[in-house]
Design goal:
- The chain is of the alpha+beta class.
- It is built from 10 helices and 6 strands.
- The strands form 2 sheets. The protein has a 4-stranded antiparallel sheet with strand order 4-3-5-6, with no helix packed on it. A two-stranded antiparallel sheet has the order 1-2.
- The longest helix has about 35 residues.
Length: about 375
């Protein structure tokens, strides 16, 4: 406690629980998204790539940040410095520096993951003219991260003077640090918006119906949420005071935590498309809850078998299941007997007469 200061209005309030609760909620959402992403890449579409590994790194850094904030709260984050010892203020400040570095790295890995995913999905089959903006974006993300970390590390010489007032050193003035943070935050927001808008621009040129374009554009532009979080975070920078950093930095830390965890969630949602598509396909009426075979598998088989069944004169045999589960045979009437018609809702099993090398019959069930 600094005896030269006056007690802050409101007394010894403790808002530290806010960042713990908010971080826990959003890291839970990020963990669910990451778990589903890994499931898709391992089970449904076995193709783990760099975009998945960078997302996993960002997710791990989010957990490191949560641990830093929990310890930081125990040393005064969310309380006024007036009620804290110099030792607590120093520990809290040091953890604040560590969490800021991890936040920058987590956000950067998230953006790199999103860009690599665009390479995987959109850059395939496109020209180099379409790809080079993605390389520029990744270079900008990495550059911003390096500049931010260097700026945080040289604001005081020695560095420990930035969090421990008992250490004598030369530091930048608070308004200089805040001004630099505003400039860097604004540039970050611009790159976030560009990263979210670029895939939408590419999708509009793809050959697909309007509904799919709108849905895919919405999913790929989830990065706008992180840009919004960054804007809110920047708006709270002016509330940080050098004489009461443990109180003023809480709001910035809360929105930084939301930004990084929401970023991990947002960059993972597009990767879940195979899972969402499979889930919706299985729930469509008429599927009977059975796994729907891809059309690429059905078409060659149906084209050949049905042509032989219905395309020639005479009669063919179709196996149908009765209530007892046995197979009965119905003759399909010859084409000249068009005056006799029968309409029935049946469950068909088209049985191939051709045997494989293993002398087993191939059966295709159509619902």
């Amino acid at each position: 406690m600094d005896d030269a200061q006056q007690p802050p209005p409101g007394g010894d309030q403790d808002r530290g629980y806010i960042i713990v609760v908010v971080s826990a909620v959003f890291i839970a959402l990020a963990s669910i998204a990451i778990a589903l992403r890994v499931y898709v890449r391992i089970k449904l579409v076995p193709s783990m790539g760099l975009d998945d590994y960078t997302a996993l790194i960002a997710w791990a850094l989010c957990w490191v940040n949560l641990a830093c904030h929990v310890v930081e709260v125990n040393h005064g984050l969310g309380r006024h410095e007036y009620y804290l010892s110099l030792s607590d203020v120093a520990i809290s400040g040091k953890l604040e520096y560590i969490s800021q570095i991890h936040n920058v790295l987590a956000v950067t890995f998230t953006k790199v993951s999103a860009t690599l995913f665009l390479f995987r999905v959109l850059a395939r089959g496109t020209t180099k003219r379409t790809q080079w903006p993605l390389y520029i974006l990744m270079a900008l993300f990495v550059t911003i991260a390096i500049v931010t970390i260097v700026a945080d590390s040289v604001q005081c010489i020695p560095l420990s003077a930035s969090w421990d007032r008992r250490v004598k050193g030369k530091c930048l003035r608070p308004h200089q640090v805040v001004a630099f943070a505003y400039a860097l935050g604004g540039f970050t927001i611009i790159t976030d918006v560009v990263c979210a808008a670029f895939p939408v621009y590419i999708i509009q040129k793809l050959q697909m119906n309007l509904r799919k374009k709108v849905a895919l554009s919405f999913v790929m532009s989830m990065g706008l949420l992180t840009a919004a979080c960054c804007a809110v975070k920047v708006s709270y920078l002016g509330g940080i005071k050098a004489t009461d950093s443990t109180w003023g930095s809480l709001d910035v830390d809360v929105w930084a935590s939301v930004e990084q965890n929401l970023g991990v969630t947002a960059c993972s949602i597009p990767a879940l498309y195979p899972l969402i598509k499979a889930s919706l396909s299985s729930k469509r009426p008429g599927n009977g809850g059975e796994k729907k075979l891809p059309r690429s598998y059905l078409s060659p088989l149906l084209d050949g078998k049905i042509a032989r069944l219905f395309g020639r004169s005479g009669h063919s045999t179709v196996g149908t299941k009765n209530d007892a589960g046995s197979v009965s045979e119905e003759r399909i009437l010859e084409s000249h007997q068009s005056d006799i018609r029968k309409t029935t809702d049946i469950h068909l099993d088209i049985v191939s007469r051709e045997t494989s090398r293993n002398k087993n019959q191939d059966t295709l069930q159509i619902v």
